[in-house]
């Protein structure tokens, strides 16, 4: 987990001799709407209080130095160097964002940068998107570029496509940039229109259980799923020419096209179409204050991710199975790209400690793996830290 931010700030000043600008960029959870974003669909994410902190200041030269405090690694580059992906994986997120700023016509000078993060990597909480958005905001602030947050999100997405090799949707970066305290955001991933819904979970708390199975999306079957969805769209277009993505398709369209599809493509498409319907249902439940309904729909999504989209795994399914049997647990699902990472759960506040104990014990007994637990709160999106940094801010 991340280092004490005051310590990092002091170290920056000792190494580079000046006071840094400090930017916080949050990770995100997604209440509902998984694998819909790259299908032009709807998602319902929220920024959380686990974050990346970026410390930056001008170097006074044409050269820049990047330091990963948590990995104890560094990288240097000239601002006129040709930008290509490198072997140090974390560096590529920075190179990708620099590339996007330069393509947008922004003039960048040399800078020094350090960063630390308390977002657990590989847990489906979008540590990479937070890094991209935090760095983008830091560059905008340092060089007074006034890049708006939607543009920052798009730059982060493009950076991940080009330099990290992951064809991610826009949701992760959008949530990190546009999140608001105690709000979830319903995002239309085609138009980028969005609406906020109050995230008042009343007597329930959001708890994440980490499967401790780590994944790298570039090495997973994420891109395969995207290609399968695109294949399904082409087949559906034969029965409905107005369909340009699965977001446009109905279950009736899918039924008419089913005979021409491989079975696996049919199930991928069915999941995505139904998941878009579930996003709207959760929004209605939140407006009505029906948190139990939200939990039920989350369980439906997990079943779809496990059986139809097939991006879950034994560890995630086991976590949901154990948690669902606990008194006070009203819903949960795997979250993120899949094949590992966390489950997100709604648990009655006065039963949280008991559920954590039962899930931790049951998971260890079933699979011999220790789960990590994150009790998260919904927080604001990316921004400059104006006041003194304190641990846990």
Automatic annotation (TrEMBL):
Pfam families: GalKase_gal_bdg, GHMP_kinases_C, GHMP_kinases_N. ATP binds at residues 68, 122-128. Residues 284-363 form the GHMP kinase C-terminal domain. It catalyses: alpha-D-galactose + ATP = alpha-D-galactose 1-phosphate + ADP + H(+). Its EC number is 2.7.1.6. GO terms for cellular component: cytosol. GO terms for molecular function: ATP binding; galactokinase activity; magnesium ion binding. Its main location: cytoplasm. The active site is at residue 172. Pathway: Carbohydrate metabolism; galactose metabolism. Gene3D superfamilies: 3.30.230.10, GHMP kinase, C-terminal domain. Mg(2+) binds at residues 128, 160. Substrate binds at residues 34-37, 222. Catalyzes the transfer of the gamma-phosphate of ATP to D-galactose to form alpha-D-galactose-1-phosphate (Gal-1-P). Belongs to the GHMP kinase family. GalK subfamily. This is Galactokinase.
């Amino acid at each position: 987990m991340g280092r004490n931010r005051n310590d990092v700030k002091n170290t920056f000043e000792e190494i580079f001799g000046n006071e840094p600008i400090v930017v916080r960029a949050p990770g995100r959870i997604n209440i509902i709407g998984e694998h819909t974003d790259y299908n032009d669909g709807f998602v319902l994410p929220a920024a959380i209080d686990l974050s990346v902190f970026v410390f930056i200041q001008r170097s006074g030269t044409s050269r820049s130095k990047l330091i990963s405090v948590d990995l104890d690694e560094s990288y240097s580059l000239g601002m006129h160097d040709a930008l290509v992906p490198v072997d140090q994986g974390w560096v590529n997120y920075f190179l990708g964002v620099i590339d996007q700023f330069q393509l947008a016509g922004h003039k960048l000078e040399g800078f020094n940068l350090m960063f630390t993060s308390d977002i657990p990597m590989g847990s489906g909480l979008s540590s990479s998107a937070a890094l991209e958005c935090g760095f983008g905001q830091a560059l905008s602030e340092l060089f007074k570029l006034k890049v708006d947050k939607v543009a920052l999100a798009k730059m982060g997405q493009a950076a991940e496509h080009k330099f990290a090799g992951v064809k991610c949707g826009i949701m992760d970066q959008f949530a990190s940039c546009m999140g608001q305290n105690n709000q979830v955001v319903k995002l239309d991933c085609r138009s980028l229109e969005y609406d906020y819904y109050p995230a008042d979970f009343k007597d329930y708390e959001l708890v994440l259980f980490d499967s401790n199975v780590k994944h790298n999306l570039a090495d997973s079957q994420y891109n395969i799923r995207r290609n399968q969805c695109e294949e399904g769209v082409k087949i559906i277009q034969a029965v409905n020419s107005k369909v340009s993505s699965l977001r446009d398709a109905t279950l009736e369209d899918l039924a008419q096209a089913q005979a021409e599809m491989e079975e696996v493509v049919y199930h991928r498409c069915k999941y995505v179409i139904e998941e878009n319907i579930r996003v709207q249902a959760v929004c209605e439940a939140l407006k009505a204050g029906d948190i139990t309904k939200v939990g039920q729909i989350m369980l439906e999504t997990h079943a779809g991710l496990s059986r139809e989209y097939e991006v879950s795994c034994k560890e995630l399914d086991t976590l949901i199975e154990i948690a669902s049997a606990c008194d006070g647990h009203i819903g949960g699902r795997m979250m993120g790209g899949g094949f590992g990472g966390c489950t997100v759960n709604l648990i009655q506040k006065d039963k949280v400690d008991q559920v954590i104990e039962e899930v931790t014990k049951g998971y260890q007994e079933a699979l011999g793996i220790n789960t990590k637990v994150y009790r998260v709160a919904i927080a604001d999106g990316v921004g400059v830290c104006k006041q003194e940094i304190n641990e846990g801010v």
